[in-house]
Amino acid sequence: MRRRQKITTNDFKFKIKKAMEIIQNRYLQRATRDEGMEAEWRDKKLYPLLGMLLLSILFYLNLGNNLISFPILWQPQMDFVSANSTHFIIVNAGAAAESQSTFYINGWNSYWLMQESVWGGPSRSRVSKMLQRGAQMGLTVCRTWAFNDGHGPNALQISPGVFNERVFRGLDYVIVEARKHGIRLILSLLNNLNNFGGKAQYVRWAQEAGINASSTDSFFSDPIIKDYYKAYIKAILSRKNTLSGVKYADEPAIFAWELMNEPRCASNSSAPILQAWITEMAAFVKSLDQKHLVTVGLEGFYGLHTTRGLEVNPGEWAASLGSDFINNSAIENIDFASVHAYPDSWIPHADLGAKTRYLSQWVDSHISDGDHVLKKPVVFTEVGSLVYVNDQGLANEDILLKTMYDKIYESAKKRQAGAGALIWQLLVEGVEEYGDRFSFVAWNNPSTYKLILRQSCRLESIFAKSGWNRKFNKDPCSGLIP
Asked: Which among 177, 258, 262, 299 is annotated as catalytic?
């Protein structure tokens, strides 16, 4: 089969230039046949035609980064996901309840997708590549940022309720591309940290408006600041995708809304305020959108006043941050519990064996709480380990990741609350600026790549009837034995 030759931008510009020369020469040759008509023909036909061609070229050169987007005329069918007690189900609106598919997650984080989609051309192609390669590894859920607050060039929310449409269109693109590849998105709505604005930016906006907000904990209590955040939520959920025409609240490619990435308080005395804030904001999201799941974005630390779990915290410091895995996750409108896992950061001086034992205990405790206390699914939404390879070529992060994957696989076999894990974080070539100590390009780490794919295939082998994302992509597990 003959393949089409790829035409580069320079090739295209050269072809346009040659076409203009040919048109000009042919029309001039034709015009000179009649000396009496030449001046009139040149003024009425040739110059307007060349002007139109010149404008077309200028238009192309200025918008060559695909900043103009064309509507999507067709999207693949996707179903929403719901929580059924301690596990997820894919809700097929036209199917009987007993035929609903159980859904356990093998996923990843790429927080940078919206940022990289702001500009067209190569930037968006990297986003597409990440989602495509994720699907090729059998991954089904990607967690990414749906926020960037402040005055930066790629800020989504420039000031309270004021948005950069160009950045919003970048998020539109991420959602459409995710659906194209059968990937569902967990969209985080705010950062606890100062990166990309965070809750500190909301407090600064309030201070600039004359509000006495003396601490970042004011974010959770001040009514004006809470209104800022609610307005942001409403803008996101009511957004109509400029590419697909689908409102975000109606988009099945969105798996869940996350209220905040790693919420913490400056003082443990603010714990009741955080609890009230989660209750209020989860209810507000549900008042606007009943189709999507909602989670908090917790790290999973147990608070000082909890009746269990303190012994599995990585240190006394973890109980003094105002968050509490049990109380925060038990809130009615929180559909599933979120947990993070960073043994390398939390117990940095322990050896690999101690870190592995700690991780095993950490996972067991939260899955047990999901089953017996919360009666909700538990998703380990960030699983990170340092990326380096030992003398035998085995990536050391594989040992911790395998520990996590084995726990989720056993949970899935028993239909327990350990509903999935998302690795932190995956990159593609060209986005290294978004990386940290835990980031890597999966296909450049063969042992880790195989481990990720194996986990995907093991989960598929249990829940084969779900069809997974095979209707969107070639089955990555075809011919493989889990």
From this structure: 262
C-alpha span between 163 and 236 (Å, rounded): 10
Range scoring the smallest mean pLDDT among 18-27, 165-174, 248-257, 264-273: 18-27
Q: Report in angstroms the alpha-carbon separations of 416 from 371, 410, 440.
A: 6, 8, 30
Question: If you compute the radius of gyration of the chain from its CA atoms, what whole number of angstroms results?
Answer: 26
- The answer to whether residue 382 is catalytic is yes
Query: Exactly one of 116, 251, 258, 382 is catalytic; which is it?
Result: 382
CA distance 236 to 217: 24
Calpha distance 275→260 (Å, rounded): 13
Strand order in the sheet with 293-295: 293-295, 254-258, 184-188, 141-145, 105-109, 418-423, 378-383, 337-341
Model-level pTM?
A: 0.84
Q: Could you tell me which residue, 464 or 134, shows the higher pLDDT?
A: 134
Phi/psi at 149 (5° precision): -110, 135
Q: Is 177 a catalytic residue?
A: no
Sign of CA dihedral 400, 401, 405, 408: positive
**Cβ contact 113:156 at 8 Å:** no
- For residue 407, pLDDT over 50 is answered with yes
Buried b / exposed e along 399-430 (16+ C-beta atoms within 10 A):
bbbbbbbebbbebbeeebbbbbbbbbbbbbee
